[in-house]
Design goal:
Aldehyde Dehydrogenase, Chain A, domain 1; Aldehyde Dehydrogenase, Chain A, domain 2; binds nicotinamide-adenine-dinucleotide; 5-stranded parallel β-sheet; 7-stranded mixed β-sheet; single chain; alpha/beta; 496 residues
């Protein structure tokens, strides 16, 4: 049975928070006992002093990862054995669903409904999916001259470091560690300094599940830890989710060190196109509201630009206002809350500064204010701006908050041109009753995911996720993600 606000508050109050780093199979303080404060965005209160990894800790974690990899304790066991351990870990995560959800909510401000029924179940699903996949992917035998046998096999890369953001703290980590571990690598996770708690709890469960020492490690800390991992000569692959500027630095660091493989999942400014023959404007408005206000807009694939054909703009805006009214910022531990807190004061200021720009460059339709400042947390009301064209900063730049720009267009060609006029290419949507038109427009959109007559629906690990252009390279999820964490070997054997 689902819990009440009071029950979630009590559960949150009673949480035992693990705040140490997890290196070589044990929880440990950072060198020199360095810590940083972890503050809850719900009320600005102090949650824990978290180990702040230093360069000696990075070296220690990389050494442990290398040694576990070379020992073969994980990398050389059969895929079926790895699968059994990963499935055990998935069961433990599932059993601790509510505890992990509450940790995620108090640490990152996400609503408890999302974390308990979305984030954590999706982490379990992701881990199960890659565990189940790994004993079903095979190599190839190449047709050659009969005097030879030619094989193509996949091997783990070695030491994989993953640097992840705070908007889906455990899930973004799982998108990296699940395929990387399933493929036999040793993994180091560097969580965001804004949300380090859930992954530390997950590390404890990894140990209980039987992941060997050194195979899975967590280094909480700031950007310098990510930078050191990206510069480290003994890290073979760095998988990153976060902002474009950080992604650029990581690529530079890889080039300046050992040319490690770098995989980037970056930002977006995803267009959601409503054509005048949209089959159901009310549904499109509900979906558009969800596409930007879910997770308080802190979603890389948020539909932050809605492009609406001018003929239906007034009617669409009416529906959108009604739909947005169902989203209210409030305490994320309350199951009735639909918009939680922004992750911290920095993000709050960023979003409010974009709202100021919006007020100068466009017309405010809804929201536009900070809410409940007396609570001490970081809340912004769902905000909608109507723009005359696509030029305002709020219509072009990633805000990463609950701020939607609505932009009119006249022709389908104009809509595609506007949609593609972005450095990003993560996701896009088209709404039309004419499936041929919708499909043609979908083809023309330069984006890694295209939704037709829906937005951000279907959670299915079979779909690759990632971006065109400056939204990144490579893909998370699906069997394509496994390729990122393996090397391919051609073996040519003369038989006689
Ligand atoms: P960020 O780039 O500021 O930080 C991400 C991570 O990188 C953090 O762990 C941070 O400590 C670390 N970091 C900071 N400086 C570093 C450096 N110089 N070298 C290495 N690591 C460093 O991003 P953020 O604010 O945490 O996350 C928001 C961004 O993430 C948005 O742009 C969003 O679109 C993007 N994002 C993308 C996806 C996707 O799948 N494409 C998913 C979620 C978030």
């Amino acid at each position: 049975m689902s819990k009440t606000f009071k029950q979630w508050q009590e559960l949150a109050k009673g949480l035992k928070i693990e705040a140490r780093a997890f290196i070589d199979g044990e929880f440990t303080g950072a060198s020199g006992g360095k810590t940083f404060p972890c503050i809850s965005p719900i009320d600005g209160k102090h949650l824990a002093d978290v180990a702040c990894a230093q360069s000696a800790d990075v070296d220690r974690a990389v050494r442990a990862a290398r040694s576990s990899f070379n020992s073969g304790i994980w990398s050389q066991i059969s895929p079926r054995e790895r699968k059994a351990v990963l499935l055990r870990w998935a069961r433990l995560l599932e059993q601790h669903n509510d505890e992990l959800a509450a940790l995620e909510t108090i640490d990152a401000g996400k609503t408890i409904t999302d974390t308990s029924t979305g984030d954590i179940p999706c982490v379990v699903y992701c881990l199960e999916w890659f565990a189940e996949a790994i004993d079903k992917v095979h190599g190839e035998v190449i047709g050659t001259d009969p005097a030879f046998l030619g094989m193509v096999t996949r091997e783990p890369i070695g030491v994989v470091a993953a640097v992840v953001p705070w908007n889906y703290p455990l899930l973004m980590a799982a998108w990296k560690f699940a395929p990387a571990l399933a493929a036999g690598n040793s993994v180091i996770i560097k969580p965001s300094e804004k949300s380090p708690l859930s992954i530390l709890k997950a590390a404890q469960l990894a140990s209980e599940a039987g992941i060997p020492k050194g195979v899975f490690q967590v280094l909480p800390g700031f950007g310098d830890v990510g930078a050191q991992l990206s510069l480290h000569k003994d890290v073979d692959c760095l998988a990153f989710t976060g902002s474009g500027p950080t992604g650029r630095k990581i690529m530079h660091n890889a080039a300046d060190s050992n040319l490690k493989r770098v995989w980037l999942e970056l930002g977006g400014k995803s267009p959601n196109i409503i054509l005048k023959d949209c089959p159901d404007l009310e549904r499109a408005a509900n979906s558009s509201a969800y596409g930007i206000f879910a997770n308080a807009g802190q979603v890389c694939s948020a539909g932050s630009r809605v492009l609406v054909q001018r003929d239906v703009l007034p009617e669409f805006l009416q529906h959108l206002k009604t739909a947005a009214g169902n989203f209210k910022a409030g305490n994320p531990l309350d199951p009735d809350t639909t918009v939680g807190a922004l992750v911290d004061e920095i993000q709050l200021k960023r979003v409010l500064s974009y709202i100021d720009k919006g007020n100068a460059e466009a017309s405010l339709v809804l929201g536009g204010v900070r809410s409940a400042p007396e609570a001490g947390g970081f809340y912004v009301e769902p905000t909608i701006f109507s723009c005359a064209d696509a030029k305002p900063a709020i219509a072009c730049e990633e805000i990463f908050g609950p701020v939607l720009s609505v932009i009119p267009f006249d022709t389908n060609e104009e809509a595609i041109a506007m949609a593609n006029a972005s450095e990003y290419g993560l996701a896009a949507a088209v709404w039309s009753a004419d499936i041929a038109t919708a499909h043609e427009m979908g083809r023309a959109l330069r984006a890694g995911t295209v939704w037709i007559n829906c937005y951000d629906e279907i959670v299915d690990m079979n779909f690759p996720f990632g971006g065109y252009k400056q939204s990144g390279n490579g893909r998370d999820n699906s069997l394509h993600a496994l390729e990122k964490y393996t090397e391919i070997k051609s073996t040519i054997m003369r038989l006689r």
